[in-house]
Structures are given as structure tokens and as C-alpha cells.
Amino acid sequence: MIPELGQFALTLALLTAAVQGVLPIWGAARNNALWMRSATSTAILQLVLIAIAFGALMRSFVVSDFTVVNVVENSNSMKPMLFKVAGTWGSHEGSLLLWTLILALFGAAVAVLGRNIPTGLKARTLSVQAWVSIGFLSFMLFTSNPFNRVFPAPLDGNDLNPLLQDVGLAMHPPLLYIGYVGFSIVFSFAVAALIEGRVDPAWARWVRPWTLAAWVALTGGIALGSWWAYYELGWGGWWFWDPVENVSFMPWLLGTALLHSAIVTEKRGAFKSWTILLAILTFSLSLLGTFIVRSGLLTSVHAFAVDPERGIYILGLLVVSIGGSLTLYAARVHKLEPGGLFAPVSREGGLLMNNLLLTLATATVLFGTLYPLFLEGLTGDKISVGPPFFNASFIPIMLPLVLIMGIGPFLSWKRADLAGVISRLKWVILIAWIAALVVWYIQTKGPALAVLSMAIAVWLLVATLREWSSRIRLGQVALTDSLDRLRRVPRAAHGMTLAHAGLAVCMFGFVGSSAWKSEEVLFVQAGTQVQIAGFDVTFEGVKQIQGPNYIASVGTLNVMRNGRLVTVLYPERRSYPVAQSQTTEAAIRSTPAGDLYASITEPVNQDVKGKWTLRILYEPLVGFVWFGSLMLVLGGLLSLSDRRLRVGAPKRKARSQIIPVAAE
Amino acid sequence: MKKFLPLLPLCAAIGIGIAGWWGLNPDRDPGAIPSVLINKPVPEFELASITGTGIPNLKTQDLLENQEPILVNFFASWCLPCRAEHAVLARMVREEDLNLVGINYKDKPATVAKWLAELGNPYRRIGSDQTGRAGIEWGISGVPETFIVGPGGKVIFRYVGPISSDVAIGKIREALAAARMDKP
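^ Those are the sequences you sent over. The predicted structure of the assembly is below.
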């Protein structure tokens, strides 16, 4: 009964979306205020209906209702409760439901929170958002219904893929989707603005908080996903340039560009065409990602169960949404008034470089991701594009960007004095050079590019701190004065400092863990010793442990340094009998200087009985990747809290009511 | 120029869309890896026979002087899908006069002799590849794996996985028919 209720709610949601897709935008064209305002109610209704459907599916997972196909295929009665709940979005159908839920959530959020947006723009935006909803709701109902039943019901389910039974990964899809789908509302704003033919600073101000919220969630989602890959897959890396990783990274790159481009549109009324295009392309790449992951177009460790029919349907959606919006862009972009003029060396100039380089970087990643497909289509050759291509093409684009990032915040709008800025930064330049020498002295092996990258990261960090300290005049005025300024500087400025510094911190991790990594892979049996990065590691053997829905082989590794015991590592190999698969639980000793990382697997060769394959790595500075990502997220949130204050304001003071005094 | 610039993203999107549409072709398997051996002569190898079975051994020479296509099947007694495939191969040999030879991959002669005694032997020749060296020469990714060697010792077709589904049997028949047409 409950699953049918969910299905019914989903069908009603599609009808509601159809009303929302037509009535408000028609009302905007005819200037009918009632029709325009209907968008608020339909957007909220749509959210409620999809939430009911989502709740129904989640209930089926929680009570292990094995009459529902989706539950049978992705759950098991023995599974811990957290993963039963997370199983709701573990499958193709369930994750699609989460997709539409977040889509409706953003629509309803704009309907409720965007009180100061002009009625016409709001009505058009919500209508466009409803078009996207219609596409995905119909996709779900016609090709991937999560509520399909099975009779007779099996006694137990097939269990969720054990790799996905992990806390980090349980949270990864919701965050990633908030990011992906969050850009939908920015897309809707952009299409609505193109239909209206007007983009002004006010438009950019309404769009920015949504962009920022989506960007923060996407940053968190990508970081969680890469953290999961790091300790769960047991390969000892955090980024593999896998197609599915790339498709989440491309919206992030363009979203970052969009975030900065919208600032120029808001503050100076320029870059209108850039901002609109970036808004369309960012969401288009999110859609493209959905298409690639769910159609089986490219091979990847991630992909969902593949069905060409679904692929055709999503491709149709893509043609309508991306093709339609880009055609609209090409037709209407001339109508946008050009913004303020600026000199090449200026804040605008810096942000233009930012737009160009990030777009170029995205194009590079897109090309590398789709190249195997193009090549196979044209010549029939099958190749895969791996890290060497991306390292050789992506890094040279990003390094200049990071150089500019150090200077950018010092430049003033319209026209800036580059020589003056550089003279203010002479100490920073010196520190960066010294850092390069120090790194070179400590680490003579490894590529020269690594030393250069480290110096550039130091440059960014110190330049960012320099900008922040000059903003609060640290050291120039009394400390109490500085603290006072600290409080008065807008939070968005602190957010920028934190995020830019976060990227520098991330870079320490990127460079350290990829350039100076040491790795040993060997067969071990009890008593085998191995030396790595100054540690003496002894393999003590393996014992069996029974978990809730798995059996684990736990290895014991004694780690010594200079004859003293440092730590004991317990890497696990888990075997899930129901799902018939194994997972690796790496054991990691983390310090700021680096991670010692160990994982074990059974040898592939049957002849070496009683031996295990031990993979042991030392990854210098890798912890900085996660710490820096956290700074990026916090920086974004800090900036968002400021935006909300300003966007929420100015609240009209409630009219002081004159209390009638009874005449006596 | 400036007028056409806004059309650039649309053109790029159309290009990607066409590639995506082509990529959805249901016959296309992005995971399939073509063998580098296709249209090349069979690799050099010489394997001993399996002791105690009396089945003749297999070497490169045996695959060169043939008029009919030969099926070269990599199998092992420890591989369960091979057991499923064995029944299909045995039937095909019985009913279609198939020229089937085997390479026994990383297996103990005693176990495989028992395996063949239990299931029957459809192979004309079997080479015992205990070290896996021949497997490397042929570039297999695992067992079972099957190659079709055409007249004159040219490798024509490779199939990864057990020949047990109707689709797989169909592909093998198709390749055999093509190989018979391709007389030197």
C-alpha cells in the first residue's frame, strides 16, 4: 500500500510540475499576477509530493519490504540501519528520486525565500525549473520506477554493493546531488533572464547565494567521494581521473568560474554574457554527468546498471534542455547591454583571466573524458585516457591561475596599479622563493614541477594572508583597532580568504602525495619485514573476525621507527557472503607530515597459499587535501552566511501600530 | 566573427550530442578489449600433453596446416564457468564436426585428467600450460577464453568468457562461418 502511495504522489508531482511549467510563465507574458504567483504554491506542493514519494521508498528500505524490486536488489535484512536508509539512494532509481527531490527543494526554496525577486522573473524561473522537473519525473515514471513490485516476494534481498556500505559514501550522493542539482536553479534564473532579455546587477545578486550554496555542497561531495576512494578502494590514491570523477569535477570548475563571474556582474554590471553562459554550461555539465554515469557510455568503476533505453531518454532530455538553452543564448545574447569598461590590469581583468582559464581547464577535462568515445566513433580504436594526459594538460593551466589568484584580490576595480601591487607583495615573492629552495633541499628526488607547484602554493597562501592582514590593517594600527576591523569586514571577504587559503593548503596535499609518494607491493606471510619511508613494518599474520553482514580477515602490522614501536595497523579484507563480493578496509596512520597506508588482499595466484598481498604506501602531506577541502567548504559557508544577511535585508520595519487609546 | 561566437557552445554541444547518440548503440560494449592478435599469425608456443590421458599435445605447428577453422579454447579444471562451457563445446563438437583443441591453463595434470574423465573429452589435442606462459603469448585475461584460428594459422576471432549463452554461441557460429568463407 505505501509504495503505491509513493507512486501516486510521484504521478501527482508530475502533474503539478506540468501546471507550474505553463501557468506562471504564461502569466508573466500576459502580466497576470495571479497566474505568476501560482508558482509559489505549485513549487511547494511539488516538493511535498516528491518528499512523500521519497519517504515511502525510504520506509520500504527501513522495514525491508521485499515486495519492492528496488529493495530486493539493493538491501538485505541483515544490513545495519544506517545503510538501509542510505540504500534509498544507492540504486539508479532511488538516486534519481533523490535528484528530483533536491530539484524540487531548490524550486521551493526560491519560492519561499526569494520574496524580493520581481514577480515576473520569479515566475519565469520557477517555470523553467518545473520544465527540468517534468523531464526527470517522466524519465523516472516511464523508465525507472522505484516502486515496481515483485511477486512472489523473495525471502531476503541481494544486499547493497558492499563498497557502498560506508558512512562517507552514505553522505556522498546527497551532497554531490545538492551541488549538481543546485546549479539547476541558477540555470533556470539564466534562462528566465534570457527570456526577459534583461540581466542587471540585481539579477546577479539574487543568483549568487544559490550558486554559492550549490558550490559548497559540490565541493563537500567531491571531497567526501575522494576520501572514500582513498580509504575504501585500497589503491592508495584520492583521485584517478576516472570519467565519473571528471564529470563531477567539471561542474565544479565551471561553477567556480560562475561564482566569480557573477561578482563582476553584480558589482560592475559587466560579464553579463559570461555569467549567463557559465550558468547554462555548469548545469549542462551536471546533466551530461548524469547521462554518462547512467547510460554506460564510458567504462568506469562507478557506473550504475546500464540500460540503453534510459540512455536514449536522457539524451533526449539533454537535447531539449542544453540544445534549447544554448540556442536561446545564441539568439538573445546580443540584447544584453554591455557593462562598464575596464583596463586590462584591473579586478575585472583578473576575473576575466579566471573565467578563461577555468573554462579552458574544463574544456581540457571534457576533451580527455570524451576523447575515447570520439576516437572509437571515428576510427574504431579503443583507448583510455589516463592521469598522464590530465597531469600534462590540466596542471599547466591551473598553475598560472593560482599565480593570478595571489594578485587578484589586491587589484582594484576598473584600473589597477600592477607595479604598486607587486611592490606590496615583494616579501611574499621572497618567501615563495625561499620555500622553493627549502622544498628542493629536503626533497631532491621527484619532478621539478613539484618544487615549482609547492612554491606557487606557498605564494598563494602567503599572498592571501597578506591581503587579509592589510584589510584589517594588522600591525599598522593598534591591535584592538585591528580586532575591531576584523569584526566589521564583511563575512564574504573572510570567506574568500579562507577559501583561497584552503586551495593553497589543498595544493600542498596534491603535490606532496603525488610527487613524493613511496609504495611497496609484496607477498607476505607471518614474520615478513618491509621497510618504507624510514619505517620498519613487520607483518604478524591474519585472523578472522565475524561482522554483522560480513566476515573479515584482519592483518596485524607492527610499525617501528628507529627501534621504537610507532603504531600497530590492522588492515581488513571483508567478505560479504550475501552480495558475494569483497571490500578492502585500509589501515591508515595519519600525521600532518603524511599517511602510512596499508591494505591487504588475497593473492590472485592460487599457488601461494597462506600468503597475502600487502600494499603499503607512504603519502606525504595527503591529509592537507581533506583539510584544505574543509577550508574551501567553510569559506563558502562563511561567505554564504554574509550573503544571506544582505540578500535577506532590507527587511521593512513592521509599521509601528498606533494603539488606539480609548477615549475616556 | 563576433556574431558567430555565441553559436560556439551550441556547436560543441551538438558535436558531443552526436557522439553520445552514436555511443548508445546497444551492440557497443565500452568494456570490450579487442585482441591485438586478430589477423595476426598464432603466437609461437609448444606445450606438453597432459600425462596419463593419451591426448596428443599442442604446438604452433598444429594450427598452421589446416583447411578448416580451429577453435582454441583456454580452460582449467578449477574454473567453474569452464565446466558450464564444457557441455556446450562437447555438444557442438558432436553435432557440427568442430575442430576443437584445448590449452589447459595453470592446472595440475592429475586433476585435469580426472576432470576430463568425468565430463568427457571433446578436444582433439590439449596442451598443458602449467606455467601460464602460453596464456601470456596469447594475451588472455583469464579463463575461459576462446580463439578461432582460420586457414593458414591466422587468428580471426577472440571470445572472452564462457560460451554458454545463446548470444555467445551465436557469435561463435557467425565467426566460424566467416572463417570458412575466408579460404586462402
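Residues 648-664 of chain A have pLDDT under 50 and may be disordered. Chain A touches chain B through 34 residues (CB under 8 Å).

Shout if you want it in another format.
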